[in-house]
């Protein structure tokens, strides 16, 4: 069950768009990467998500620690590192949602899709929201890549 009906209609702006695209169940294990994690983490908690954590890209991710990874601000040059981080931190059937900086070139969404596909993600979808591009992808139920 996703977040619809849990007060999200009252929210607007980038946080609401990220939460809507993630469509996570209230009991999902959610990791939000900084920068931009504090406000989104608080919003998630106010919406009833109780298992939310913040992380830095420089942290060593524990394997399969999250069902959902949300990255509010993917800066130029960090896309590959963010997607590799997502591949390690997400459990099978997990979801990653990337918010690509509005200053990134238009090709950034295509690069993100290509890189996500290369690392085994599926059901990749991109949409424009609140001045940025949101990319969502799911990690299928398969074995880990070596």
Write the layout of secondary structure elements.
Layout: H1 14-22, E1 30-33, H2 37-46, E2 52-55, E3 66-74, H3 79-89, E4 90-100, H4 107-118, E5 122-129, E6 132-138
Parallel strand pairs: 1-2, 1-3, 3-4
Antiparallel strand pairs: 4-6, 5-6
Describe the structure.
It contains 4 helices and 6 strands. The chain is α/β, with parallel strands linked by helices and 146 residues long. The protein has a single domain, classed as Vaccinia Virus protein VP39 (Rossmann fold). α2 links the parallel β1 and β2. The radius of gyration is 14 Å and the shape is globular. The N terminus is likely disordered.
The CATH superfamily bears the name Vaccinia Virus protein VP39
Low-confidence stretches: 1-5
Radius of gyration from the CA trace? 14 Å
Count of the separate structural domains: 1
CATH class: Alpha Beta
Say how many strands there are. 6
Fraction of residues in β-strands: 25-35%
Q: How far is it from the N-terminal to the C-terminal residue, by CA?
A: 32 Å
Biggest β-sheet: count, sense, barrel? 6 strands, mixed
Query: What portion of residues is helical?
Result: 25-40%
CATH overall fold name? Rossmann fold
Secondary-structure element pattern, one letter each: HEHEEHEHEE
Q: Strand sequence of the main sheet, in spatial order?
A: 2-1-3-4-6-5
- Can you give the mean pLDDT? 85
Q: Based on CA inertia axes, which overall geometry fits?
A: globular
